[in-house]
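Notebook entry, structure prediction.
Reason for the run: the old model in the group folder had no record of what sequence produced it. Starting over properly, with the input documented here first.
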Amino acid sequence: MRTVTEISKSIQNSFCIAVARLRRYTRATMAANAHFRYEELANFIAGLIENGTLLAGSRVPSLREISLQRRVSLSTALQAYRQLEDRGVLEARPQSGYYVAPAAVTSLEAPAKSRPPAKAATIALAGVVARLLEHGADPKLVPLGCAVPSAKLLAAGRLDRFLARAARRKGTTYNTYTVPRGEVRLRREIARRALRWGQALAPDDIVITCGCTEALTIALNVVAQPGDTIAVESPTYFGLLHTMEILGLKAFELPTDATHGIDLDALGDACRNRSIKACLLSSGFSNPLGYTMADERKLAVLRLLGRYDVPLIEDDIYGDIHFDRTRPRPFMALDPNADVLYCSSFSKTVAPGYRIGWLASTRHMQRILEKKSAFSLCSPALPQVALADFLSSGGYDHHLRRLRREFNENIQYMTRAIEKHFPPGTRVSRPAGGFVLWLELASPVDTRELFDAALEKGICFAPGDVFSASKRYRNCLRLSCGHAWGPAIENALRVLGTLARKMSTT
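New structure, fully documented this time:
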């Protein structure tokens, strides 16, 4: 018989063996469970992307946030994110976190390359533009018409606080005329920002204007006279065409691709024939197509215009609203010796009501100052001081990051809704910045008739014919994505798509 000691040792050995087996089983189970957990988390995140909760370019919850929300360890969350990164679903950005990787948000084709007539056109849009602006300002209509961002998305509140502070401290000092160039501190802040993308400007190269509209008006007055022809993109912003009409200028519409921009051969022909006095192009994101030209194509434009001594008026009002990591470089930054008049403003990013824009030139400053003095003498001082304080505080860059994310998400939501509700054959632009979409509908939809029908339903958009001097694009329309996505806008797109479908079958 075994002694008590032997029995005790045998039991102890059996217990140790059982414990070892249990530990091995537990480790295996935990490993399998951990594998399951990070796979489960990865599938959860992928599902949020597939159903549109997380959009391309948007930031996903941080590792700490998702680990707390889903009750997993940080290592499990990291494994899940790395797996999604390997699958191309997420992308890691240094010191910023994980973002949904860029992806096509629609299967709809991009608008076809435009084919305007190869001759100058007299512009007659004043009455149509006035009516559109009136409807665009009507608060009772769903705001898909004018490209004016929602006040809720802008930085007007913080800017107003700077304005109030400046008024309290030096209101009397600033209740006067400034020099025609404008407040020097604001010009200095603009010049400092321009250095970031290689645009070397001195404060004296800049004139503060009443929005970008005055900047463009002055620039056109400097380089052209009534009866002259200006080369423009086609389609192009109706406000620009309206300005040209009032100045007595004609438009030479250049064939334009929704991805690559203007047709360089057509521009070359116009220059060789001496049929244009100047060229006016978007350098950031065109309105309404939303494209930006590659640097190589911009340089080709500058070389071509330089060969025939044709000045370029550059509209860069949407340049700061870029969805990629880097801002598009303006024409002026690519060749500081080129004959370029650079126009921009803060109306699309900070506060439209402040009406602060600017015009920069190293070649035409004396004539610019003469025109500015004649048109408006100077711009209001106090708003300029407030904006200079806002820019110097560093708040603008933080605001821009949020604004870009909002506009990018709005565009993606609206693109999905267009694909869902609009008639077969609809084409839609793919802007890499800004906040407008250009739609090309299959014939026989007439967007002027669609516009009238939409107004009766409480919806405003911009019909395509106002974007052309030759009255083209009757089957196209522009939608503003400047207001936060919500039920009202979603329903408006459904109604608009239904109306378009009915017209396409009649």
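Summary: The CA atoms of residues 90 and 100 lie 5 Å apart.
The old model has been moved to the deprecated folder.
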